[in-house]
Amino acid sequence: MGPTGTLQLVRRVITAPTVGPFIALVVTMAFFSLKTDRFFQAENFSLVLQQVMIVGVLAIGQTLVILTAGIDLSVGTVMALGQVIMTKLAVANGVPALPALLLGILVCVGFGVLHGGLVTGVRLPPFIITLGTLNIAFALTHIISNDLTFTGLPKLELFWGRTFNISGTDFTYGVVLMLVLYALAWYGLNQTAWGRHVYATGDNREAARLTGINTDRVLLSVYTLAGLSYGIAAWLLIGRTQVGDPNAGQTTENLDSITAVVLGGTSLFGGRGTIIGTLIGALIVGVFRNGLTLIGVSVIYQYLVTGILVILAVSVDQFLHRRSG
Amino acid sequence: MRHPQGGERRPWRFGLLTALAVLVVMAVVVSVAAAKPTARGATVKVGLITKDATNPFFVKMHAGANAAASKAGAELIYAAGKSSSDNAGQITAIENMVTAGVKGILITVADAKAENAAIAQARAKGVLVIALDSPTSPTTAVDALFATNNFNAGVFIGKYARAATKGRKVTIAMLDEHAGSSVGALRHNGFLKGFGIKKNDKQIACVANGGGQQTQSQPAMENCLQKNPNINVLYTINEPSAAGAWTALKNAGKKPNGVTIVSVDGGCAGVRNVRAGIIDATSQQYPLRMASLGVAAVVKFANGGAKASGYTDTGLNLIAKKPLKGVPSKSVKYGLANCWG
User: Fold this and answer.
1) Taking CB atoms and an 8 Å limit, are A243 and B113 in contact across chains?
2) Of A74, B101, B282, B308, whose CB is crowded by the most CB atoms within 10 A?
3) What is the CATH number of domain A19-315?
């Protein structure tokens, strides 16, 4: 590779959309490493990964939706519903673990299909549709669970919370699943025709349609896959908390997933962004929450910092959008 | 460096510079915040996790723990859920505190069961875990419980309400917190016991959830009054709930004085409402004592002492403006001297 080639490579790296978030993550980690020796430890990294696992998986679905210039406000409550169905069926109704899990996932996928159907069929804005399903899923969660917390769950439902050991550090299987899902999403978005169609549809739906892309089918597939990711997140959540919790998913998960996507550099205008950026965005939030506790600072500062970062990330995106548009 | 695209500036360079600049600012902000006077090294670290960070009850608990910690030369690390039912937030806080090296964690659990797995992991690593205010299910999930006897808190105000309405026909409304609240169920059932009625008694005209909050309790009470305008006894889970219900009574043109309102908490705003005649009687509890006893127990354990265990009653007093025969109570003056918030 000649000097020009090297230069171009450097330029490509610097201008890659994940670089900004990545630098923010590195600076944050360096900061906490300097402040406390408890931060930079394999065990602590494993912990941070566990803590971002749920929002991380929800954010995969959210990324797909936002890439098509949509938004999904219902992620947390749909996940909560899936989780309550999985645990209630297993504990209260005596359904074996596997069908209970599949039914829970199926309900989440159903919500995805519903979203996709309304977006393409009735042409409603995703914001309104998912605002509606946010409340529907919330209500169903409480109706179905009768506000009970389910315990004594079968082993299979708790699987993703189990750990394995790599040179003295415990990792959960759930974290591995999250990373595998990110790899799959990356492959789908970057290495397949479907992925290009998602970007094209998000960038300009009409133009994409005129080039022969079936944009309705693309959107339907995006919302359905998003629903699937919420279903998987529901199973992960059970593994993490080891209970079926009717209050799960209604506090922070909806907005946290959007935060991760935005911090990761994905544009709310659609058509631009990366799935790896989303993972980095989720990690930034997790690292702040963990690091602040380790140095003895109230978690409330995490929200302060997250707020600043979100506005910053959107400003940068807006700036880019104006430049290129 | 060559610029193959002429003078066009890279937008990302702007982005990166801004990002870096803001990060530096943040780092400074956080450093300043972190630079609060904390002794380093062998200091005992105590974790406190509350349901949320805004309820005056928990604000007072936090303040009490802070005071007790600095008195004992310990360092307090505080965290709270984003709402009173944020189980995931509490679990994350437990994990992070264990990593931070706390000797003990004091926690008001958001759910009786949902934090148990994380608590078990913390205890397995040798951390003393004490539940404050809200019990876990089973109670053995934690090492110890420092709390008000919430059932008795209900019994006290139930007895007062019965004595206040002696010989009259009563129509009762009950404003609970939310389903699944362990504290709420104890107070509710205590009230029934104290009043001398059963769960499905016909005198209970309305049972509604006000979330323990003023803004939610007002519409709950409005709906109860729609259902039965003759309500003349009102049980509320706490004083903000009573305040919301009182607004509903006032707006409905009911003479609030004709309604006996009882509540639980003993917060300063609540006791002032007792003085003003809005609340007739309230069971006062002592979050500061829960917090200071908790911190002391952790420090004792860290210095080689025994682990706290079992249930410690942190005390309770009925505060009433008008004392009634056969119902022991303390004066408003006493209530104000010992109130919180």
Assistant:
1) yes
2) B282
3) 1.10.3470
User: Are B245 and B186 within one domain?
Assistant: yes
**A151 at interface of B, judged by CB pairs closer than 8 A:** yes
Residue of B nearest to A11 (CA): B10
Shared domain for B323 and B245, answered yes or no, is yes
Domain of residue B233, residue span: 150-284+317-337
Q: Is residue B199 part of a domain?
A: yes
* A248–B contact, CB cutoff 8 A: yes
User: Is residue B35 domain-resident?
Assistant: no
Task: Per residue of chain A (325 residues), give pLDDT as tens.
Answer: 455 677 776 666 555 677 888 888 998 899 999 988 889 988 899 989 998 999 999 999 999 999 999 999 999 999 999 999 999 999 999 999 999 999 999 999 999 999 999 999 999 999 999 999 999 999 999 899 987 889 889 999 999 999 899 888 889 999 999 999 999 999 999 999 999 999 999 999 999 999 999 999 999 999 999 999 999 999 999 998 888 988 888 777 778 899 999 999 898 889 999 999 999 999 998 898 888 888 877 767 878 888 888 888 778 777 766 665 4
The pTM of the full predicted model, rounded to 2 decimals, is 0.78
Is residue B28 situated within a structural domain? no
**Residue B243 included in any domain:** yes
Is residue B69 located within the same domain as residue B156? no
Instruction: Measure the CA–CA gap between A39 and A290, rounded to whole angstroms.
Output: 8
Using the Cβ of A163 and the Cβ atoms of chain B, whether some distance falls under 8 Å is answered with no
State the complex-level ipTM.
Answer: 0.71
Q: Which of A27, A151, A161 sits opposite B23 (nearest CB)?
A: A27
Judgement on whether residues B270 and B130 belong to the same structural domain of the protein = no
Total domains present in chain B:
2
Residues 305-324 of A with CB under 8 A from B: 305, 308-309, 312, 315-316, 319-320, 323-324
- Taking the Cβ of residue A272 and every Cβ of chain B, the question of whether any pair is shorter than 8 Å is answered with no
Contacts from A217-222 at CB under 8 Å and sequence distance 24+? Answer: A218/A68, A218/A194, A219/A68, A219/A70, A219/A116, A219/A119, A219/A120, A220/A113, A220/A116, A220/A117, A220/A120, A221/A116, A221/A194, A222/A64, A222/A65, A222/A67, A222/A68, A222/A70, A222/A116, A222/A198
Helix (H/G/I), strand (E/B), else coil: B333 = helix
